[in-house]
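Working notes for the structural subgroup meeting. M.R. asked for a predicted model of this chain before we commit to crystallization trials. I am recording the input and output together here so anyone reviewing the notebook later can reproduce the run.

Input as submitted:
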Amino acid sequence: MKSIIMTWLIAVAGYQDLQQPLVLEIGDKAPRIEVGRWVSKQQIGQLEHGKYYIVTFSSEGCPPCLASIPIFTELSDTYGGKIEVVNIYLNTESKNKTTQTDSGYEKPKKSRLETYINNLIQAYGINYPVGIDQVDGATQELWNVKGVPTTYVVDRCGEIIWRGHMPAELNVLVPDILSGRFDRNTYAIKKEKHDKLWSILWEAYESGDRNMTVDQFNKYTRVYPDYRKRSTLGIYRILAFTDAPSANNHIKWALDNLDNFSWSKLANYMLVDISMKKRNISFELLCRVLDRNIQHSKSESQKLKAWHLKSMYVKRIAIDRGDPRAIQLALETTEKAIQYAILMDNQDVLSKLEEGLDTLKLR
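Returned structure, recorded in token form:
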């Protein structure tokens, strides 16, 4: 149970490794950067006074780190002359991965991590310095990085003025910093309040008391609702395993509070859970989620895909249950999807829907 709650907390934080608040505080001098080698064409030496920096730490295979790349790329494009992004990957390589050169110096082989980063640079069009920490993790230790992504903003005096794990906040923060509207003392007070509440949540988890942890989690997300919004899928997946009524309530909350959201992914998880039968996830709520997916389609082709998805999901559950009301709903849904496929003149989808309709009529 404790490992489940741990997974839940990680899902809420969007943070690869959950730890106590970092030691580096607002107003501290930024440490040195001791990068083992740069992978990108862009490189820096040490942080220079008179310039703003965003220093962010990542690791291979970290989903929140991948999600932050477009944010940093856009910030670099927009404010490249005023604030510089520096991305450092934690080093997971062996000290023995070296090769001897003609000049007698040892040069690291091109590792899997370097290949991984190069692929990201090409795929995302990364336009800022990206390096790999030294094998002994010197930079990670200097900056007291306990998990990823961890991001700092350093001002022109070389002092830390912001730190966090949600790079999306920088879209609002950076313009305020560059325009002089940002007050680091006010931010430090807010950060202290956040860290205190987070520490209480952490202590509840450490105690092993699930009810206390859930209670503190609810308090935390009431104060910081954005954490719940950005972790909706992760929270649902944990609740579906442990507490179906709470999972259903969480879906209702998502339907009431979220707009731009991956409804199709949520529907997929719900379908699997309903099919397992041991989890009492609401079929009616699944239909509402599928309807929301249709409503928020951005193009006619996406809307047809969403109608097809609803037809398949409702048909599958209806046939599995053998419930006449579910069968009737599946028939109505498939007929509406067929009408839309005819309107879009999509013969491929139309033939699949008509085949599904014939199957339902045999029930």
